[in-house]
Amino acid sequence: MFNYIFSIKGMIDILPNKILTWQYIEDIIKKLMISYGYCEVRFPILEKTILYTKSVGICSDIIQKEMYFFEDQDKNKTFLSLRPEGTVSCARMVIENGLVYNNRQQKIWYIGPMFRRENTQKGRYRQFNQFGIECFGIIDFDVIIEHILIVKNLFNLLFINNNIILQINCIGSIKTRMIYKDVLFIYFINYVLFFDEDDKNKLLVNPIRLLDSKKLNIKKIIDKSPKIINFMDKVTKNKFFLFMKKLNNLNIKFFINENLVRGLDYYNDIVYEWTLKEYKSQNSLCGGGRYDNLVNQFGFKNISGVGFGIGLERLILLYNENFVLNKFFVSVFLICIGDKAHFLKIKIAELIRILYPNIFLFTTYGISNYTNQLKKAYNLNTSLVFIIGNEELKSYNVIIKFLNSNKLNKIISIDNISILWSV
Question: Angle at which helices 234-249 and 142-157 pack, to 10 degrees?
């Protein structure tokens, strides 16, 4: 019996009926980035594994359970990893290429596949696509507000803003976090009997990571844990209060989640997540914040950083649930009848494409009768049918048939087809 070869679990194909949605959303992102003055960058899918183990956090789920890595065949037997997220690679890129020398600031964005070996579920896969923004050399927290506005505007443009809420928190300076780690260790050690091996490991390496737990028994313990705001200095507190005041001034709704710490160790100060209201778990759509100690962990002089990441699969899932792509695009099927029209079909199609580059034009190949061509148009779910026969060729006209509509057929000059877009 023949053994069929299928795709790897959690690594999905994007089929023709979905790709237009992807392209539409990517186009919105590109235009949004131009309006905010961000430049696109692209970096390798493969990186040295040590890049992530030094920065993401040795006890994080990414390092412990999810990262794809292997030994290279070079003489040094270097371990390589498929990138599990974009921020670390982006930081490596700006340092290696001297983009932040002499106190230069960088506002950059990227989009592309990331890889994590985690449990697959609705909108979450082992190969997923991420849109991210990173800024380097900017200390002022106004850049975080700008990032929040970018995400808010993206949600508005995709008409998915009603089901999404913004959570914020301040996790303190690097110094505060060191103090807070010790306080949390003393608190959590009293509950170590309730911890599994994974939780015990987090307790020893970085107890702050326990605050990110989704386990119900741990959540009850977390609710009574010491809060980091009580260990912050006055400057950090005032900065956070001013940040919230500016959000209110911009009419950006939010709520404070004191247990929001983000899943990666390189964050500090202000962090945030956009989450879905209706999902009880795995509800994060976008997450970001400040990371002023990341570059230092690579052995370089420290540079302030701030950014966010959005999983495109979840974004597209929400968009599909709320809108229909055909609202934004006009798809047309060209039917040619008669020997002369069939002979000139390719030429006619090219003329229409030149005159109207924003339509999707389909047609059949070879000679086919009217009925078969019309069936094809219905199967492709096109909005309109352009019918051209030998008589229409003489008068430079086209018969317009509206599919899935009660509108009557129209006869229009090819030069005047554009009036249909307002019909």
Answer: 30
Give the 3-state secondary structure of residue 263: coil
d(CA 232, CA 235): 8
Residue among 112, 109, 170 nearest 135 (CA) = 109
Phi and psi of 268, rounded to 5°? Answer: -155, 165
Domain ranges of the chain: 16-173+232-322, 329-422
Let me know the angle formed at the C-alpha of 202 by 196 and 203, rounded to the nearest 5 degrees: 85
In the chain, the largest separation of any two C-alpha atoms, in whole Å, equals 90
**Cα separation of the two ends of the chain:** 57
Establish whether domains 16-173+232-322 and 329-422 are of one fold. no
Nearest one of 345, 330, 336 to 382, comparing CA atoms: 330
Phi, psi at 287, each rounded to 5°: -145, 145
Contact criterion met (CB below 8 Å) for 262 and 308: no
Q: Is 277 exposed, middle or buried (0-12, 13-18, 19+ CB in 10 A)?
A: exposed
Residue spans of alpha helices (H) in 189-233: 197-205, 216-223
Per-residue pLDDT, 143: 95
CA 365 to chain centroid, in Å, comes to 38
Q: Which residue has tokens 């119900």?
A: 216
Residue range 130-162, pLDDT digits in tens: 999 999 999 888 999 999 999 999 999 988 888
Note if the pTM is more than 0.90. no
Q: Is the dihedral of CA 387, 391, 392, 394 positive or negative?
A: positive
Q: Give the separation between CA 208 and CA 210, rounded to whole angstroms.
A: 5
Cα 195 to Cα 85: distance, rounded to the nearest angstrom? 28
Side-chain half-sphere exposure of 132, counting CA atoms within 13 A: 27
Residue 270 bridge partners (DSSP): 170
Distance CA(108)–CA(123), nearest Å, equals 26
Does domain 329-422 fall into CATH 3.30.310.80? no
Q: State the fold for domain 16-173+232-322.
A: BirA Bifunctional Protein; domain 2 (3.30.930)
Q: 310: closest CA among 285, 346, 280?
A: 285
Contact 189, 221 (CB under 8 A): no
The percent of residues above 70 in pLDDT, for the chain, comes to 90
Whole-angstrom distance, CA of residue 404 vs CA of residue 384: 9
Buried b / exposed e along 88-104 (16+ C-beta atoms within 10 A)? bbbbbbbbeeebbeeee
